[in-house]
Structures
1.
Amino acid sequence: MRRIAVAGEPVLRQKARGVNRFDPSLASLVRDLVDTMRAAPGIGLAAPQIGVSLRVFVAEISPEDERAVDELDQTGKLYILCNPQIVKAWGEVEGTEGCLSIPGYVGEVKRAEVVLVRGQNLKGKPMRVKVRGLLARVFQHEIDHLDGILFTDRLESLDKLRKLEQPSPPEESVPRPVAAAI
Ligand SMILES: [Zn+2]
């Protein structure tokens, strides 16, 4: 597990360089990304968030995640994408978003509803994946990280950003936060 960089650290504002060596060091980086994402816990993590300015991200949504209503066939899978690019996007939807690098805040961000993304797997083999709903949001958020963009850059106004409440005592019944920690 690695430390997650927080807003203000330069690595989050750099345009990450492309992956061109699909070697054991890449596999090791991806293992760290997956472990760190799951421990956080989060549903996506990009390499710059653990201090490595390289174009790779991971994403994984649990089948039990009630925020994932549109993409039942895409939950429970671990996605690993190197050099990802959005080929095509459909629709627009506003949704609540958070970021492991901006702890304590969530915001309403407009994203495409469905995206077709191409990239490469860990071995460098070309791949294409079409994702929708929450997973499409995660992919767009992570690809932004590779370009040095944070979700707060995409807010239409600061009214769309809010601070999360402190966790309530366990005896209180409160709705689960709807924010995607990505
Ligand atoms: Zn993020």
Note: The longest strand covers residues 78-90.
2.
Amino acid sequence: MEDKSKIRLTNGVYMPLVGLGTSHSGGYSHRAVVYALKDVGYRLIDTAKRYGTESFIPQAIDESCVPREDIFVSTKLWPTDYGFESTKTAFKGSLNRLGVDYIDLFLIHWPEVSSKCSDKWGTLVETWRSIETLYDSGLCRAIGVSNYGIEEFEKLLPESSITPHINQIEFHPFHNPNDLKQYCDDNKIQIQGYSPLGEGYLVNEQIIKEMAYNHKRTAAQVLIRWSIQNSVPTIPKSTKENRVKENFNVFDFQLNDNEMSLLNGLHEGRKYIDSSKIKDKIDEQLPDGYKLDIHLNEMTNSSQNNRQQS
Ligand SMILES: NC(=O)c1ccc[n+]([C@@H]2O[C@H](COP(=O)([O-])OP(=O)(O)OC[C@H]3O[C@@H](n4cnc5c(N)ncnc54)[C@H](OP(=O)(O)O)[C@@H]3O)[C@@H](O)[C@H]2O)c1
């Protein structure tokens, strides 16, 4: 029987429709990740070298007691590692930090390179070729890109022997790029959505709140349900256990055709992830997990404070 909580990629690999994001922004909660796997039933973890959270995942998987092979582990390559050999080295680094011997999904994080690089497209193609060899040798179950638009695909596809299985992009009712979606559908590239809650801001949108009220659901659930009803898997993030559970409980209700077309008509190109700042981050060589470090320091300080007080 078909598992309605998963989607089949073109290479036959099944990917969960709802996964857990673990980006540095907003911090990492170990408890929330363990809870997601052990108690709620999440089977996809999205991370990236950039987030600085890869090395926390093995302990969470271990504590969850869920077998590794039941978990779809997805990570990404940051632009400072682009290039044929450096991609392989960075991939090994991710494998080691994640404590696994294969990655379920490995993505090129951004179609952007450092200003010092004189051949952007050559570098991106070379990087993709390197990822193809990782796939061919069985080290990744699926491979893809992130934040690619039609222009980037038009440069990449003629040069590639494997069409990316995934394009991970910002995807919510206010950023629902039909032309890109159609292009990906035509080329059998599965879109996976990130920031389905618009980093949390979209739960305050009136139209979403009204639909949630009518379904006796929450605004977050309406947003996530909308994505999966559009056949776009999604990876909401929360550091709070109650929200981790809430965000996964989306398989037992349905938005009707009228609601779907209302939400599908809201696209206005609104993005919460500012792509114009990515180049600066590459050039400035900001360390991986640069926002997370601050949060971890706060956590360390607060546990030190607690110890001093007690
Ligand atoms: N490929 C890329 O370039 C890229 C870019 C951005 C993100 N991503 C991936 O996508 C994941 C998700 O995106 P995101 O973290 O940017 O945004 P998001 O999932 O849309 O929103 C996360 C924010 O919403 C809050 N939140 C979560 N559940 C909620 C609920 N039920 N009700 C109200 N607020 C809620 C969270 O706060 P609390 O923690 O306080 O609950 C957090 O501040 C990331 O973690 C990352 O894995 C990928």
Note: The first strand starts at residue 6 and ends at 8.
